[in-house]
Design a protein that fits this description.
The protein is of the alpha/beta class. It has a single domain, classed as NagB/RpiA/CoA transferase-like (Rossmann fold), CATH 3.40.50. It has helices spanning 4-16, 27-37, 48-52, 55-61, 72-75, 102-109, 131-140; strands at residues 20-23, 42-43, 66-67, 80-83, 87-89, 94-98, 113-118, 123-124, 146-149, 154-156, 162-164, 171-176. The longest helix is centred in the N-terminal third of the chain and has 13 residues, at 4-16. The radius of gyration is 16 Å and the shape is globular.
Length: 187
């Protein structure tokens, strides 16, 4: 169930750390948005909600060059990567992704633009509210990688000069798509 105040808080916090949050009414609308932002191949790893929604076909219909089988060499040439999300944390504007599969990690770290599909029903208030879904993820798969993504990649040197995009995407687009997947265990 969507909580409008959590959506607003999440959006405010995500924007504050450099992400762009876009409300979409459908996967097709999200694909059209992505097509307007990407100038090259788009990495789209296989994930359950993407398969169920026919995501790859919708993206191709929007004119995107979709790469669904890739290596670190081919991934490095992509202009964007697109994944789902397991859930999000409102008070930090963070996305949480179970990213054990290498193609998920490549799609979220190598291209300069990252697109994350998020069903707004999967936004929790804070870290304490994230304990239950995190516990369920770890009970399902005892050994897995969990990525917390808060804004575009950023780093600061010893002189505290902030640089965006050194260790990952320079741009993060969070596409809110109601009804995409309300299952916290499913990306």
């Amino acid at each position: 169930m969507m909580n409008q105040s959590l959506i607003e808080l999440f959006s405010e916090k995500a924007v504050a750390v450099g992400a762009e949050v876009i409300s979409c009414t459908s996967i097709a609308e999200a694909a059209t948005f992505v097509a307007g932002k990407v100038d090259g191949p788009l990495l789209v790893p296989t994930f359950p909600s993407g398969c169920r929604s026919g995501l790859e076909t919708v993206l191709r219909d929007a004119g995107l060059d979709v790469l669904n089988a890739f290596s670190s060499e081919t991934a490095g040439r992509a202009d964007g990567g697109l994944t789902g999300t397991n859930f999000a944390i409102a008070d930090t504007g963070s996305l949480v992704l179970e990213s054990t599969a290498e193609d998920i990690r490549l799609a979220t770290t190598l291209p300069p633009k990252q697109f994350a599909l998020l069903d707004p029903a999967k936004i929790v208030a804070d870290g304490l509210a994230a304990v239950d879904p995190m516990r369920r993820l770890h009970q399902r798969d005892a050994r897995n990688y969990i990525a917390y993504i808060t804004g575009p990649s950023r780093t600061a040197d010893i002189e505290r000069v902030l640089t965006i995009g050194v260790h990952g995407p320079k741009e993060l687009f969070i596409l809110l798509v109601p009804g995409f997947s309300s299952d916290f265990l499913e990306m």
